[in-house]
Amino acid sequence: MNKFFTYLYDFMRRHRLLLWGLLTLTVVVMGWLASQLSYNEDIVSFMPKDQQGQKTAAVFNSLRIKDKIVVMLTAPQQDDPEAPDRMIEAAEALAEGLQPAVDEGLLRSVTARVDAGLLDAATALVYNHLPVFLTEQEFARLDSLTRPEAIDSAVHRVYGTLISPAGFAVKDVLLRDPLGLGTPLLASFQQFNQSGDYEIYDDHIFTADLQSLLLFADPAHGSSASAANERLIEILEEQLSRIGAAYDLQADYFGAIGVAVYNARQIKQDTAWTLSIALVVIVLGITLAFRNRWAIPLMILPVIYGVLFALALIYLIQGSISTIAIGAGAAVMGIALSYSIHVLAHSNHIHDPRQVVAELAYPLTVGSFTTIGAFLGLLFTRSQLLHDFGLFAALTLIGTTLFSLIFLPHMLPTGAPKAPSPLLRRIERLNAYRYDTNKWLLGGLVVVTVVALFFFNDVKFDSDMTRLGYEPQRFKQMEQRLETLMGDTSRYVYLITSADDVDQACQSYSKVRSLLDSLAAEGVVKAPVSAADFVVPMAVQQQRLEQWNRCSKLPSATASPRMRSPHSTVGSNNSLPPLMSPLRALPTTRCLAIGSSRVIMVRCLSAVWLSITT
Fold this sequence. Notes:
Distance between the termini: 74 Å
Helix content: 55-70%
Largest sheet: 6 strands, antiparallel
Number of strands: 12
Structural class: alpha+beta
Number of helices: 23
């Protein structure tokens, strides 16, 4: 090793033009490659890289509900009768102001009003596929419902409701289902409304006291798309500031997108501050120790070269890196600086650069191998973040070591060596002290070690991933306000079923409901909410269709005479709809678990895409 670097030094000393040309070329090429590297601040990079971890990360990124942005407009004064109308005007103005974000592809939509077609869509879902939603208990109920006396009673009851004032609101449902076959299914939608502390005023969602109005924005990108979301948050905050001032309202928002953007900003700020403070401390220490105006650039240049070397190779290897890993990699700067400090400090005692290379090549490379190997060991972890950190640290040290042994010796100052500074003399005196001969020090270390043996096992590791990121105080306060106003202080956890195909996912999802029911019976969870009634495996759908068609009293595609009322002219249209093909549900199924202190409340939601087979 010594001979190789000594020969390289002699060769480069004879060919100075090649030396500086090679240095310039490598810096330019590595700088260009490093500029092409993409950076991400995705918190999901903490998850393992194994099959289960990748599946979890993929599902987590696909959950659009976690990226929803909730906007709250609040009146500054209580009991202001004009506040609701003013907030509605502000909401419409805000939705219009956010339209440029929609046009730019930053937002999918802004929901300021309640969609009146949601109820019709839910009703159509139930009745267009009614047979596949009926359970064994409901099929057993059909015998009693289709008896002549039961039909006559139902028709009279429906007729009485239609001619009453309430008939206007429920006319469509009554005419479509006079026997009430789908009524239990429609009623099951109520389970998704666990928090009832809100009011619908003029098609807008208010809190129960009408002092706050809620809007919802659907971002087009996930929380990991920091560049696009940075622009979105800028537009949103600008519009909220404008609306708040124009309508005398308190305008604020909350959502994972905002938290992710501020978290990315904080990471960049923390990284800049960490590096700046480290550089200031290092520069101050080097200045006091060496008293040489060239000492600082000579020590920092190898580290800068090593960072460029690492970023360039990472671009060629994987194309991107976590900014969190780079921020944590600031700790490597101290290790990398030690290599150049070794060379510079050694040159204070041995003025010949060639001899410096000859004496330091072996210990410097062997010492770097052990450190680099330790960081490369992180490549075998299952966390992408640790993988990035290990790769960045190892490559930085490799680049720094190469610069310190190839280029740095040619930059060392010539002339008579200067006397060491008082600080450097004290450091050298401390290094020369024989600590192994101090019995008091050795005894103290033994006592501390023995005491530590009784407490080391009490160390607890924080498994709460919410503590990994930074959340501004304004978002914490906004979240608390939402929980207080909506009467829900619970925490949400998603239970997700996934499979190789849709049918297996539906079957797995059906099992989740029984699991939640059993946990609720044991008191482990409460308020379980499941969409299992509407996520039916294909085999079960087919069985229910066949069972429906075996019921001779039920209509298959035409109207049944028994479904007509002799007392009204609308009875001729009172028939069940034709049977449709089996319902195909593609669920990105998710269960929402809410934890309050030691009690976990579980809600299940399901995002279902529906299509009718032809």
